[in-house]
Amino acid sequence: xxxxxxLCFSQDVMETSPRKLxxxxxxxxxxxxxxxxxxxxAAGGVPAGKLCMAKVAVPQHVNLDGTSAAVGxxxxxxxxxxxxxxxxxxxxxxxxxxxxxxQGHQYRxxxxxxxxxxxxxxxxxAEPLRAALDDTTKVSLTASPxxxxxxxxQEENLPAGVAPCDVPGGHHFWSQSSGPALCLSADxxxxxxxxxxxxxxxxxxxxxxxxxxxxxxxxVAWATAGxxxxxxxxCLTMD
Length: 239
Fold this sequence. Notes:
Elements: E1 27-29, E2 35-41, E3 51-53, E4 64-65, E5 75-79, E6 94-99, E7 106-112, E8 120-125, E9 138-142, E10 147-149, E11 159-162, E12 172-184, E13 194-197, E14 204-206, E15 219-221, E16 231-237
Parallel strand pairs: 2-10
Antiparallel strand pairs: 1-2, 2-12, 3-11, 4-9, 5-8, 6-7, 6-9, 7-8, 12-16, 13-14, 13-15, 15-16
């Protein structure tokens, strides 16, 4: 069943933790309206004020053959494609039913066993199946957008927030997703300009150029014009 939004948390927004203390993607709103999402930094970490991007899916874990399972079941066994998975790689991610029996449903994953390439993985879901699955079903394993986030120059990926403090690799933190923030600028965009992920790693740029038109708007420039290579005020709009 769906869980209500939490109001009390075990980790401050300016703290990082090697131990997971909240559900990845949990949303937190401060008294001043700034919003955050609980995230896990990739091995390289995330410097303060840089935009994080989500990982792309593992291609060999997409559109897998399903397994027979009845409504109400929560433990499934799937055969992966030719790429391994570590234990709990998909914790707080999603089992997405992409085609045939049971299609259109998404389930949050509570845990998964480690599995070799082309091996069998045991999945435990956080919620019971709402529709039966069978051997015609196609399913995809999709990690949480907030697992393994990192600054990136692949600016057409999914933005996952701005780090409010320096985050060591493999640490959990609150990634800011809405409200007033400070983020690296790639150009001199004026206040009021819509901002998108830039080709400069971890930075934002104005959305006016043709090259920026296929990128998601993640913020609005605020207060002052930007200076390339410096950090500027913006109002994040990811949530």
